[in-house]
Write a structure and sequence with these properties.
The chain is α/β, with parallel strands linked by helices. Helices cover 50% and strands 12% of the residues. Strand 7 and strand 8 form a beta hairpin. Helix 18 runs antiparallel to helix 19. The structure holds one RNA strand.
Length: 545
RNA sequence: GCCCCUGUAGCGCAAUGGAUAGCGCAUUAGCCUCCGGAGCUAAUGGUACAGGUUCGACUCCUGUCAGGGGCACCA
């Protein structure tokens, strides 16, 4: 198929707007969407409702006039072969009803071109840097990091599928106060293991893993002053492996230590000073972030001469732009929401548009077991780790569960449900649909016909299923617009449901050869979509379960 | 005190400002000579409260109430 009918109809609506002399009144993009209910046609626009206010006329009247023009234009174009009628319904919606041939053609496109029929045709115009996890290398990843990892990786997959150039980056806090404390913690534990009496400060790392590192450091005779770097390096290896086992990879590990060495921090200070956004007070150096809407100015160099966390971070975000990225996405935990304004302020100070940085706050996940929250305490080094979740439920269920709620909402993650192999567990529901299709295809006496006559697919469930397939792209558009991949999990559950309903009422392996060929093609189309969606989520597509 | 997130059916959730607010669990009543019953069909039941914006509000704005998280010259 050349141009999609949706775009053709939008073009036609734009033409009619011009024809009626309304085009200038309505410069916005014309929206033509799947209606909320299948009864209201196959495409729908609320344009007349929007126009009615501008024209000061009743919506239905405006809709009728627009519809008359549209009908006329459709009847003299090639669209008349696919559009059965254009109707004004409800408050003033204009609904387009399409012939089934249109859906057969779309299905055919999917089964002949596969995933390529769904992916972006052209490269998108933005170079995206998505920074996520970025946990300090001072301990194993927590479930909070795990959720960020799942969301960030999946969002990157989706944007990449939609044609954006995407880079995944982990900002590595490999020097500074926390690394010093880590080194101090290992040092004390090593002394303790040697039999010395020690006093372990409360703000030091309490977890048992510090003993493990201390033992290794003792064996390797690591020097006292190198303990921090040694421990951070050791933990980083563990973090990398945890992420790999979770199916998350990064294109770039951006070292704060390297950034500090590069002189970019001083360069950023110099430029800010030049612009008059730095000043000294109480022996500290302040960034005038209030000039850009922050609540208060922020210290970047403390009175003791050391930098705050904000200092390298300002330079880091400026560096993202100088590396050629023009869409920055940061995934942060809810404890960082106060940082949004100050980082955006720093970007504004450098002359960037604050909206080029999108900060997604990934809300916390609470782990439940049999309906009871599992208690945790980071202070004592007792928190639930990504590793524990992976060991218990596996990467597939973990990824799906972390993704299945709106990212900005709290998430309850019940380990027992994630382990269940039943309908209660949505990831199994979706994977089961995929496996079931594979099973049918295996037991089919014939292969998939290259030229099936799809027009024999006349049952309600068959047409619903095809229409559901076409909603995939809308789902991706929503994911992009909201910077949130969770809608994909909802879509896959709905698609699986449509498939199970079809399956229950109609036999694929029907004695009628033509019908069987068409239904095999249909379920193959469903398989392609399920497979593509699961791949974007980073979840396996089992052929048998 | 200030900031962020969340209040939708008994429970867990969905609904890119749109048409009769959807789904799962639970409860109740059904469906297996048959491609995987890990499934399907029904019944029951709902937008925290008070204003406002809009042709139209679960959705946006203001206030109230309730739950969770955060408010350093920490990272």
């Amino acid at each position: 198929m050349s141009k999609d009918i949706q775009q053709e109809l939008i073009d036609l609506i734009a033409y009619c707007l011009k024809d009626l002399g309304w085009a200038e009144l309505y410069p916005e993009k014309i929206s033509l969407e799947f209606p909320t209910d299948r009864r209201f046609g196959d495409f729908s626009t609320n344009l007349a409702l929007k126009l009615s206010k501008l024209l000061k006329r009743s919506p239905r009247e405006v809709a009728a006039e627009l519809t008359a023009c549209l009908s006329k234009e459709i009847s003299r174009s090639e669209l008349k072969a696919l559009v059965t009628q254009v109707k004004v319904e409800g408050a003033g919606f204009i609904n387009f009803y399409l012939k089934e041939d249109y859906f057969y053609a779309k299905l055919k496109e999917i089964i002949t071109r596969g995933k390529a029929a769904l992916a972006a045709e052209a490269k998108a115009d933005k170079k995206v840097l998505i920074e996520f996890v970025s946990a300090n290398p001072t301990g194993s990843l927590s479930v909070a990091h795990a959720r960020q990892a799942a969301v960030g990786d999946c969002l990157a997959n989706v944007l990449s599928f939609m044609g954006f150039a995407v880079q995944r980056e982990y900002y590595l806090n490999d020097e500074g106060n926390q690394i010093n404390i880590l080194g101090g913690s290992v040092s004390l534990r090593r002394k303790e293991l040697r039999g010395e009496k020690i006093e372990f400060p409360e703000n030091y790392y309490q977890g048992d893993y510090i003993y493990d590192i201390a033992k290794i450091a003792e064996e390797l005779r690591i020097k006292e002053e190198e303990l921090g770097d040694f421990a951070a390096g050791h933990i980083l290896k563990i973090i990398r492996q945890e992420l790999l086992d979770f199916g998350v990879h990064f294109d770039c590990w951006y070292s704060q230590k390297e950034l500090a060495k590069s002189g970019k921090v001083e360069e950023a200070f110099r430029r800010l000073k030049e612009k008059g956004y730095l000043y000294e007070q109480d022996g500290a150096l302040w960034f005038k972030s209030t000039a850009f809407g922050d609540d208060k100015d922020r210290v970047i160099i403390k009175s003791d001469g050391s930098q705050t966390y904000l200092a390298p971070d300002i330079a880091y975000h400026e560096d993202k732009f100088s590396r050629g990225f023009n869409w920055l996405i940061n995934l942060w935990g809810p404890d960082h929401h106060g940082y949004i304004n100050r980082i955006k302020a720093s970007l504004a100070a450098f002359g960037h548009k604050p909206e080029e940085l999108e900060v997604i706050i990934v809300q916390l996940a609470t782990i439940f077991r049999n309906g009871q929250p599992v208690q945790m305490s980071t202070r004592r080094g007792q928190y639930i780790t990504l590793r524990e979740v992976l060991d218990e439920v596996g990467a597939d269920a973990a990824r799906f569960f972390f993704l299945m709620r709106r990212t900005s909402s709290h998430l309850d993650f019940d380990l027992e449900i994630a382990k269940k192999q039943s309908a209660e567990n949505p990831v199994f529901y979706v994977q089961y649909a995929h496996a079931r299709i594979c099973s049918i295809l295996r037991s089919s006496p014939e292969g998939i016909s290259q030229e099936p006559d799809l027009s024999v697919l006349k049952e309600k469930e068959e047409l619903n299923l095809i229409k559901k397939l076409l909603e995939f792209n809308t789902t991706l558009t929503i994911c992009r617009a909201t910077c949130d991949p969770y809608m994909l999990t909802v879509y896959l559950q709905e698609l699986s449901e449509s498939f199970h309903k079809f399956y229950d009422l109609h036999r694929v392996l029907d004695p009628d050869k033509n019908l069987m060929a068409a239904r095999l093609a249909l379920i193959n189309g469903v398989k392609i979509l399920l497979s593509c969606g699961l791949e974007l989520l980073g979840i396996t597509r089992p052929e048998k379960m």
